[in-house]
Structure formats: C-alpha cells, structure tokens
Amino acid sequence: MEGPNTRPLTPVLVGPTAVGKTAVAAALAALTPVTVISADARQVYRGLDIGTAKPGRAVLARVPHVGLDLVDPGERYSAGRFAREAAVWLDQIRAAGRLPLVVGGTGFYVRALADGLFREPPLEPGRREQLRDWTGQLPGADLARWAGRLDPRFQAGGRQRAARAIEVALLTGQALSWWQQEARETGVMRPWYIHLTLPRETLRSRIAARVDAMLAAGLVEEVRGVLARGVARDAAGLDGVGYREVVAMLVDGGEAELREAIAAATRAYAKRQETWFRNQLTTGKEKRDTGNVWTLDATDPPDVLAARILERWMKLPVSRVPFPVS
C-alpha cells in the first residue's frame, strides 16, 4: 500500500502574487514535459481572467494546465474539493508520462494536497442551509468579525472562507482550526517546495506593473460584463483582490483612486502570502526535513531560474523520482 513516504515527490512552486510563478513554470516546461496544476483559489472561476492573472493563450497552448475555469462566479469551491480533484489529476498526469508541477499562491490549497484536510463531521442539512442564508446577507467585514470571534485562529480571507469558519463552529461546537488540527486526513502529495521570493521593492514594482497591465487589458470591462450577467457584487470570486476594488468603483465611483486601491490591496495580499508560506513551510515535517523546502530568489530571468530548478531536482536522492528529461 502506498504511504506518505512512498509517493512520488511532486515539485510545488509557491510564492506571493507577481513574484513570477507562471513565467518560471512556462520556462520549466520548455526544458521538460510538465503539466501544471493551478493551486490558485481565484483562477478556478470562469470569466475572471484578467484580475486573476491566468496564463495567456500562448502559454496555455504550449503548457498543459488543470485547475483553471472550474466553476462560475458565485459558486463555492473549497480547498477540500480542490484536494479531491487534484488527487485525480496527479494520477492522470503521471499515467500520461508527464510530471505534475503544482503552481500557486493559495496556501490552503497546497496544504490540502500535502497534509490533507480535516475529516468533516456530519452537518445537519437544514440548519446548514439556514446558516448559509444568514451569512449570505452579512457584509464581508461582519463575516470576518464573526469568524474571528468563533475561531481565534481564523486567518483573513474572502467571504467563502469566513462563512466556512462560522458554519463549522456553530454547527459542530468546535472551531474550524480545531478540526483541522485534530481530525486531519492524510495528504495525497509528497511535496518538494520551491519558494520564490523577491526583495520588497522589486515585488512592489512588479505589482505596480501588473496592476497597470490588468487595467490596460480591460479589467474594468471584465468586471462590468460579469455584473451585467446578474452575478452579485459580493459573489465568490468577485470578493478577491482587484475585483472588489473594481466593483466598489463601479457602484460607488472613485475611478481616479482605482489603480492605487488595487495596488495597495495586492501588496497587502502578497505580504499575507509571504507570512503564510514562511510560517507554514517551516513547521512540522518540513521543518525537520529542510531539503523539502528550497527558497529561491526570483530576481533572475525565468529561464535561468527554470534551469536552476531542474538542476537542483536532478541532484535530489535517487529515491525521489526525477523529472522525465526530454
């Protein structure tokens, strides 16, 4: 029977938004046959392309991706669902003779694959539906406050994450963080983390450039079109960084401040991501096995970084299945 230590090692490219993960993954795909598993909670939404920085058509035509465009805005997509579906993708990719490369900035998705999620207790359907009706009417700030009161270890996130924390706490009598710690299932992936980082000012510059590119590519028009299709302004997907600022501008005005509002929110989000990866990737088994986490300065061009990653991978112990080199 396959256990956690006998599963093939899987490279996992993580880091904050705008650090260059997509470009490095594309450069790596030019060196060896990989299929990217997107571990990004925002890229699962159809029609939200510009603000989520999905790979462009040229990259998608050259590099197979899974995990994109899975649900419509407003539909819930949890880390648990991601882990279940990604487990199938991992097997399919390897069966096709390719290597899966997990790429993303959503730490909970990555952790769901590597360490597993909690085994959810039964929740009474009627009470659950009533609670969802109630949380669906609360403003985002109120949702976050309730989540923090019910679970002191709740980390800031979108409406879906906050509503989930409230739901589990009220329906089970235990905080979501308690269940995640005490009733965790085994993960489906043995990770080798490549943690991309950048000096603060360099990342700030890349974030500013990305915001400018998104606005020039039609981010406002993208959001206006989604709202015109009847999607609620606070629907899952539209509550993400970039989208919520555009929604607020379209509803309340303030176009002149839009660029800086998005940039500021993105910088704050990147800081939270860095804090999460720095803390989570250096605890538990990863802390005891530091070879499973490699922090890499992403200042160099993507092709240089990709070559370094491949070289490093090929030097790992023989027991760790190497890249299939073309």
Explain what you see.
With 326 residues, the chain is α/β, with parallel strands linked by helices. It folds into two domains: 9-117 and 185-314, 3-Layer(aba) Sandwich (Rossmann fold), CATH 3.40.50; 125-182, Orthogonal Bundle (Histone, subunit A), CATH 1.10.20. Helix content is 50%, strand content 10%. The protein is built from 14 helices and six strands. The chain has helices spanning 21-29, 57-62, 79-95, 107-114, 125-136, 140-150, 159-172, 176-182, 200-217, 219-228, 243-252, 258-280, 284-288, 302-314; strands at 9-14, 34-38, 65-66, 99-104, 190-197, 293-297. Strands 3-2-4-1-5-6 form a six-stranded parallel β-sheet, with helices on both faces. Helix 3 (79-95) packs across helix 4 (107-114) and helix 5 runs antiparallel to helix 7. The longest helix has 23 residues, at 258-280. The model is unreliable at 284-290 and 318-323 (pLDDT under 50).
Write the layout of secondary structure elements.
Elements: E1 9-14, H1 21-29, E2 34-38, H2 57-62, E3 65-66, H3 79-95, E4 99-104, H4 107-114, H5 125-136, H6 140-150, H7 159-172, H8 176-182, E5 190-197, H9 200-217, H10 219-228, H11 243-252, H12 258-280, H13 284-288, E6 293-297, H14 302-314
Parallel strand pairs: 1-4, 1-5, 2-3, 2-4, 5-6
Report the count of strand segments: 6
Strand order, main sheet: write it out: 3-2-4-1-5-6
User: Could you say what the CATH topology of the largest domain is called?
Assistant: Rossmann fold
Q: Could you name the ranges where pLDDT drops below 50 across 5 or more consecutive residues?
A: 284-290, 318-323
State the domain count.
2
Give the overall silhouette: globular
Integer-rounded radius of gyration: 20 Å
